[in-house]
Design a protein that fits this description.
This protein is mostly helical and about 210 residues long. It is built from 8 helices and 4 strands. It has 2 domains: about 70 residues, Glutaredoxin (3-Layer(aba) Sandwich); about 130 residues, Glutathione S-transferase Yfyf (Class Pi), Chain A, domain 2. The chain starts with a strand and ends with a helix.
Length: about 210
Amino acid sequence: MNTLLGIPLSPFVRKVRVVMAEKNLPYDLRPVFPGSDDAEFRALSPLGKIPAFSDERIGLADSSVICAYLEKSHPTPALLPADPVAYAHALWFEEYADTKLFHVCTEGLFFERIVKGRMRGEPADEAKVAASLKELPAVCDYLEQKISAGALGGAAFSLGELAVTTQFVNLNHAGEQVDAASFPKLAALLQKTLARPSFQLCLEDEKSLMASLG
């Protein structure tokens, strides 16, 4: 049985969940917070980061490693293109999402407003929030230009746009939206991706979680 350890509001847990849904893979989701001292989790994730994953053959941590394993072990439908250029683009946008978009959307906004503000009852670092909001137009513009050049969101759905979209979900949870007037191609790509059944399954779970936070 596939087992995924992590919390649904994590963009990295969401990324793996969407990949598994796209590949029609059943799994058991075990809620585990980052840094947990749960023995099973620590055996899979010695760095204490989520998600962690196991099946009958292997135990893994790190969303990119897990997704790469799932792509190799369950190659249909393919989420990494066969064409070398498109393949490189997909990997690059996964990396960009996991680093730059995580820094702006999740670490700078979601963590401050939702994790600290609503989960922990702590004051948000407003300087960090302001800095992230200041960075947001630049990252949106970068993605807008890449979409215009055909480097993101090609003919087939890929891990690149999946990873980008999952970080923008956390931006939305934090009360912010992509400015569709300024970045119409990015907004359209996100809307199209979020409409996929694989994302909708995750978002339905997350609605109740967000509502429970008040």
